[in-house]
């Protein structure tokens, strides 16, 4: 069975590589330059300074794309945090003040595809046997995701947490399906409550002792889930900011960044440990003074 799964996985990876290679050939314009003006400083997160630029026409760039930027003849590395409508948020590794008058950004439109192609290639060991560098425990789940083998169903008791929001029958069904199957696709048009359904599912899985990874092709989609999670459970989930949930990466929503952002969590844990250390040092100092006083009395009695 294990050899069959590996063979299926190998075939799927080769198919993906072929598809990406064809897509890369179809992309005619591999890079372009864009001039952005009047950038305003938004916030600093994880030693990254984030600026907002507004454009006259929409520019679509994949979130987290690494780009080269030129500011006053200085070339710097930057990351596209988000690109939506007429707004682009860019993170830099240094502080350029409250405003950036003008910036030239060099964008490679196929950078993400080339990175994905490279990562998939690295999964295949260059030997005649064509082995895969994949954890066997994840191979089966990946194949289920792509519909190559049957999805497993196992009934799990669903205990709905206390909610201000009342899920409808379709949302409850989506939650139950997600808990009973190892792969579930939740689909619906905008406004049907997919985000809050995932937020509730996150809480249920946490209560069941599961580890959960939330990921998406955009930063704001991840933030929206945590935004709903905070709104629903901020009063009933005391572990909200103790490190049980960590928002890694570039958060776009301030309350998510302040409550769950990795930098905020680290700072809070550091402050708590520093406070405990200060309290212990104070106790130690008191004991030291008492011991010194005892030593002086002993020396006085000896004399």
Structural features, described:
- With about 300 residues, the chain is an alpha+beta fold.
- Among the domains are: about 30-110, Elongation Factor Tu (Ef-tu), domain 3, CATH 2.40.30; about 155-240, no CATH class.
- It contains eight helices and six strands.
- It has helices at about 1-25, 110-120, 135-145, 170-180, 195-205, 220-235, 255-260, 260-300, and strands at about 30-45, 50-55, 65-70, 75-85, 85-90, 100-110.
- Strands 1-2-5-4-3-6 form a six-stranded antiparallel barrel.
- Helix 5 packs across helix 6 (about 220-235) and helix 7 packs parallel to helix 8 (about 260-300).
- The model has no long low-confidence stretch (mean pLDDT about 85).
* Radius of gyration of CA atoms, rounded to a whole number: 26 Å
Q: Share of helix among residues?
A: 40-55%
Unreliable sequence segments: none
Query: What is the number of beta strands?
Result: 6
* Residue share in β-strands: 15-25%
Strand order of the largest sheet: 1-2-5-4-3-6
Number of helices: 8
Following the backbone from N to C, one meets helices and strands in this order, namely: HEEEEEEHHHHHHH
Termini separation: 87 Å
Secondary structure elements and their pairing?
Layout: H1 2-26, E1 31-45, E2 48-54, E3 66-71, E4 74-84, E5 87-92, E6 99-108, H2 111-121, H3 136-145, H4 169-180, H5 194-207, H6 219-233, H7 254-260, H8 262-302
Antiparallel strand pairs: 1-2, 1-6, 2-5, 3-4, 3-6, 4-5
Provide a brief overview of the structure:
This protein is α+β, with helices and mostly antiparallel strands. It has 8 helices and 6 strands, in the order H-E-E-E-E-E-E-H-H-H-H-H-H-H.
């Amino acid at each position: 069975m294990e050899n069959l799964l590996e063979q299926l996985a190998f075939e799927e990876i080769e198919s993906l590589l072929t598809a990406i290679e064809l897509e890369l050939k179809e992309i005619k314009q591999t890079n372009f330059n864009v001039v952005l003006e009047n950038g305003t400083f938004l916030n600093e997160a994880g030693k990254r300074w984030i600026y907002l630029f507004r454009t006259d026409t929409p520019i679509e760039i994949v979130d987290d794309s690494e780009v080269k930027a030129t500011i006053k003849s200085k070339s710097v590395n930057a990351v596209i945090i988000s690109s939506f409508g007429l707004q682009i948020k860019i993170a830099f590794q240094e502080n350029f003040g409250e405003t950036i008058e003008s910036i030239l950004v060099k964008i490679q439109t196929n950078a993400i595809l080339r990175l994905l192609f490279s990562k998939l290639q690295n999964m295949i060991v260059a030997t005649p046997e064509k082995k895969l560098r994949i954890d066997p425990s994840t191979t089966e789940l990946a194949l289920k995701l792509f519909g190559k083998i049957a999805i497993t169903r196992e009934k799990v008791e669903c205990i709905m947490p206390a909610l201000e929001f009342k899920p409808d029958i379709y949302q409850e069904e989506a939650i139950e399906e997600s808990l009973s199957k190892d792969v579930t696709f939740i689909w619906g048009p905008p406004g049907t409550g997919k985000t809050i359904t995932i937020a509730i599912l996150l809480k249920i899985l946490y209560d069941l002792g599961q580890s959960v990874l939330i990921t998406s092709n955009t930063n704001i989609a991840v933030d929206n889930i945590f935004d709903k999670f905070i709104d629903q459970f901020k009063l009933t989930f005391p572990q909200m900011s103790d490190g049980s949930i960590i928002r890694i990466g570039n958060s776009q929503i301030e309350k998510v960044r302040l409550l769950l952002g990795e930098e905020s969590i680290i700072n809070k844990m550091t402050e708590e440990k520093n406070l405990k250390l200060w309290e212990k040092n104070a106790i130690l100092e008191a004991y030291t003074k008492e011991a010194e006083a005892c030593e002086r009395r002993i020396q006085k009695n000896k004399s």
